[in-house]
Amino acid sequence: MKKLQFCVVLLCASLVVVLASARVAVAQGSESYVVHGVEIEGNRRIDTGAVMSQLASVPGRITATQLSDDVRTLYNSGYFDQVQVGVVPRGDGSVTVKFTVSEKPIARKIFIKGNDDVSEDDLSEVLKLDGRRFVDRAKIQSLIRKATAYYQAQGYYDASLDYSTTPVGDNEVDVTFNVKEGKLYHVREVVLQGVADLDEDEMRSVLQTQRYKWWSSWLFGTGKVSEEMTEADKQLLRQYLLDHGYIEGNVGEASIDKRDDGLYVVFDIAEGQQFKIGKVTAEGDLVEGSAEKTVEDLKSEPGDVFSATKVRADIFTITDRFGDEGYAFANVVPNSEIHRDEGTVDLAFTSTKGNPVKIGKITISGNEKTYDNVIRREMRIEEQHRYSGTKIRRSQTLLQRQGLFEEVNITNKPTSDPSVVDLDVNVKEGTTGSFTAGAGYSTANGTLFNTKISENNVFGTGNKVNLNLDFGNQVSNQVLSFDNPRVNDSFVSAGADILRTTRQYQDFNRELEGGSTTVGYPAELLFGKWAEDMSVTLKYELLRINIRDVDPDSAQLVKDSQGYSTSSAFTPALNRSTINNPTNPTRGSRQNLSVEVAGAGGDQDFWLFEARNAWYHPIWEGEEGDVTFANRTSFGYGESMNDNPFPLFRRFFPGGLNSVRGYRNRTLGPTDINGQEYGGNKQLINNVEVIFPLVNSAGLRGVVFYDVGQAYDDNQAIEIHDLRQAVGYGIRWNSPMGPIRFEIGFPINRQPGEEAKQTMFSFGAPL
Fold first, then answer.
1. Most buried pick, 32, 117, 598, 605, via CB within 10 A?
2. Do 504 and 594 belong to one domain?
3. pLDDT-based confidence at 675, cuts 50/70/90?
C-alpha cells in the first residue's frame, strides 16, 4: 500500500513538473507545440464558441508566444477578470491547450445615491454601462471621470464620486455610485495673467469659460468651469496669440482659485514678440504658371500682423485655384522664415498640384422621394468636365438652400484612372410637407379657425403648392398657390396664385378676389458672378376689390373706398439669399426689393415700395448646437398716383406672430376717432431674436425676442419714438410633422385697452 501511495505521489509530482515547464515555456516563448485540441474552462455566460473565435490557438503547431497573445486577447476583450493557459502533454507527443477563465460579474442594477441638485435621469445618461453590462473597473473609473466633469460643467467644482458593488446572485452585482455634490460655484473672474499688449476683454470673449452674469448666464449656461473647458480654452488662447502675430507666445496650464465668493480662473500667458508679415511668395507648381496669380488677393499681405487663421484660409484659396484648373489633389504647404530682428515672418507657399482631373460619373444617393433631375439640375459641374472645387461647393450650397434636404454631402470617389474622379452626391431628405391648424378668439377677429397645407416637394418634383384656409365670423381667406422653381429644368421659375379673402372690420367689410402669375430668372446669368445669389422676378396681379357694409360713422377714408374696384398691377422685384436653410436658417442673409405699380387697367392707380432684410449669424458655436442672432427688418411705403389716399386694401396693419409680437393681429397703425383701424400707407418693423438650442438632437430650440414696429398714415412722417415695442420668449420645434412655434409677447408701451400679453401658436409654418 505504501508503495502504491509513493507511486501516485511521484506521478503527481512529475505532472506538476511537466505543467510548470510548459507554463515557463509559454512565458519565455522558447518552445512550440503540436496542438491536438483546445479546451475552455470557467466560462458560464460567454459561449465557448465565442471564446474560441477569438483565439489563434487551433489544432496544429503553435508557439508559446502565440499562446501568450491569446491570453492577452481574451483579457482585453473585457469579459474576464483572469485568464490562464496551460498545456497538457498527451502520449502521442502532442498537447491539449487549456484556457481557464474567470468571468467578470454582471451588473444587474445601477443605483445613484447622494445626488440632490442634479437629477438621476441626467446622471443615468452619463453613468451608463454598455450593452454587455460586465462590471469593468477601468470602465467604471472612466464613467466616474465623465460624471465628475459633468458636475463641474454644472458648477459643482468640488463634486466627487466613488462606487461600490454588492453581490446579488450568480456572479451578479448591483453597482452603487455614491455622489458628493459639494457646493455650487460660479466663475467670478477669468484672469489672463501676463497679458501686456493684447486686448484682455477681446481675449476673454473667445473663451468657453466665462464670468457669471446673473442676467444672461441662465440663458447661455455660462459662469461654470471644468477641466475640459480650461483645456479647450488653452488652445483657444494659443490660437488667439497665433492670429495676432505672437508666433512664439505660450499659454500655461490654467489654475483655479476657489474662494468663498466663487471661482477665479487664471491663465498664465507669455506674449513674446509680435511678428508682421514680410514677403509673401509662391514656389513649386504655380497657378497659371505665375507666382503673382498664385498669391493674388490672399488674406496674408505684407505689413499685416501675422495670423495663422488667415494663412490657413490662404492655403484653401490656393488649393481652390488649382482645383478650378482641374487639379483635385493639389497640396499647398506654407513655409515660414522668421526674422526676429526685423519682427517679420516671410511666407512661401509651396505647391504640388498633382495630375489634372476631370469628373467621371456623378452618382446621387439618399433620395427616396426626390427625383434625380431635381438634384442634378442644381449641380454647377457636369460629367466629363474639368474638376472645380468652387463649383462643387456652390452645388452643395444650392442644394442645401432648396429646403428639401436636412443634409447634403458631395464627396470625391477615386477611380482606377488617376485622371478621373467620380462625385457622390448624398442627400438626407427632410420634412417638406406641413399642416398648420389653429383656433382662437379675440374681440377684434372673433372666432377663427385656420388651416394651412403646404408641400415643398410635390411628388418629388421640387415644385411647391400651398393652400391656406381661414374661416371665422369676421375673417375668411382662401389662397391657393403653386410654384415651379425650374420650369422644364431650365433656369426660368414660374408661379401662380388664386385667392379669395374676406375681412369684417367693425366699420366695414373687405373682399378680395383674383390671382397672380410670376416669372423669375437668376440674376447671375444676366449680370455675372457678382449676382450669383440674386434673382429677378416679374409679377402680374389682377384683383377685384369690394368694400361693403360701411358704417355711416366710419372714417372718411373708409366711406370713400366703398364699392367695387379693380387693381391691375405689375411688380418687378430683386431677391437675394445666402441663408443656409430656408426653413431653419442659422447663418446668411436674405433681401427683397419690390415696387408694385397699379394702373395698367383697372380703377386703382398707386405705387408701393417694399424692402425686407433678414440676417442670421451664429454668436456661439458648441457641441449642443449654435446660438444664433437674427435680425429682420421690413419697410413699406406707398403713394397714390392721383389725388386719392393710398388704397385701403393695400394699407399696413402691424401686429401678430409674424409682425410685432405682443399685440393682437392687425391692431397697430392709424385708427379713426372711434379707435377703428384703417391702416397706414407706410410701415417699419424690426425683429431681433436670439435663438438657442434646448434639445438640439430633437430640433427643439428656445427664442427670446425684441420687436418694434408701427404703421403711419398718409400725412404722417415715420417717427422712431412712435414705434410700438414688445419683448418675449418662446419655444420652436422642428418636429417630424413640421415646424411648431409657441411664443408669448409682452407689450412694453401698452396703451389702454391692450392686453398685458399675447400667446401665439403656429404649427407647420416656417420657423
1. 598
2. yes
3. confident
Q: How far is CA 550 from its chain centroid?
A: 52
| Bigger pLDDT: 760 vs 296 | 296
Reading the block at residue 748, the C-alpha cell is 412694453
- Residue range of the domain that includes 46: 21-103
Q: Are residues 638 and 537 in the same domain?
A: yes
Dist. CA 399–CA 389, nearest whole Å: 16
Identify the pLDDT of residue 442: 40
Question: Are 85 and 159 in the same domain?
Answer: no
Give me the pLDDT at residue 763, please. 61
Sorted by sequence, the CB contacts under 8 Å of residue 331 that are 6+ apart come out as: 319, 351, 352, 354
End position of a domain, from candidates 413, 429, 445: 429
> Would you list the DSSP string of 87-134?
EEE-TTS-EEEEEEEEEPPEEEEEEEES-SSS-HHHHHHHS---TT-B
pLDDT value, residue 65: 86
State the angle between helix axes of 308-324 and 389-401 in degrees (0 to 180), rounded to the nearest 10: 100
**Sequence-ordered list of residues with C-beta below 8 angstroms from that of 276, at least 6 positions apart, any chain:** 245, 303, 304, 305, 306, 343, 344, 345
Would the CA dihedral through 136, 137, 142, 148 be positive or negative? positive
Identify the three-state secondary structure at position 341: coil
CATH number for the domain harbouring residue 137: 3.10.20.310
Q: Clarify whether residues 200 and 263 are in a common domain.
A: yes
**C-alpha dihedral (601, 604, 605, 606), degrees to nearest 10:** -130
Examine residue 435 and state whether it is found in any structural domain, yes or no.
Answer: no
Count of domains for the chain: 6
Confidence of residue 22 (pLDDT cuts 50, 70, 90): very low
Residue 152 sits in the same domain as residue 290: no
pTM (2 d.p.) = 0.61
Q: Is 33 exposed, middle or buried (0-12, 13-18, 19+ CB in 10 A)?
A: buried
